[in-house]
Amino acid sequence: MNVQRLSQLFPQVRTLVTKHLCRNLGLSAVAFNKAKELDPVQKLFVDKIREYNTKSKAAGGGAVEAGPEFDKDMSDELAKLQRLYGGGDLTKFPDFKFTDPKLEDLTSK
User: Fold this and answer.
1) Based on the domain organization, do 46 and 82 belong to the same domain?
2) Which phi and psi (to 5°) does residue 87 adopt?
3) Average pLDDT, integer, range 6-18
4) What is the greatest pairwise CA distance in the chain?
């Protein structure tokens, strides 16, 4: 008797579940599309990030939208720093080498 009852319920449950899933999937897709359209600030932000990305690739690793005046100022500042601090590549992070000091042995003599 239980087997017959379950066989009668499963088709009804299956159709009910599929209807709810289709309805929820359709509503969530509409809500997701509306949410993407409703946020102009986020869209503007993403557009600016993409624009900056293309400009930085075009600049080849240099400063984005920098003119000849900026390049001249940058080279002047680097030359000034090289004179003050002894030269070397100032665009590279320095390598620090720490050595331990020699300590005297203060145990019994």
Assistant:
1) yes
2) 80, -160
3) 69
4) 100
**Rounded Cα gap, residues 58 and 43, in angstroms:** 23
- For residue 43, give both structure tokens: 């869209």
d(C-alpha 87, C-alpha 89), whole Å: 7
Residue identified by tokens 């145990």 is 107
DSSP code string of 22-63: HHHHHHHHHHHHHHHHH-HHHHHHHHHHHHHHHHHHHHTTS-
The 10s digit of each residue's pLDDT in 13-37 is 777 777 776 777 676 766 676 666 6
32 lies in the same domain as 44: no
Domain that residue 20 falls in: 1-38
| The two three-digit tokens of residue 44, written as one number | 């503007």
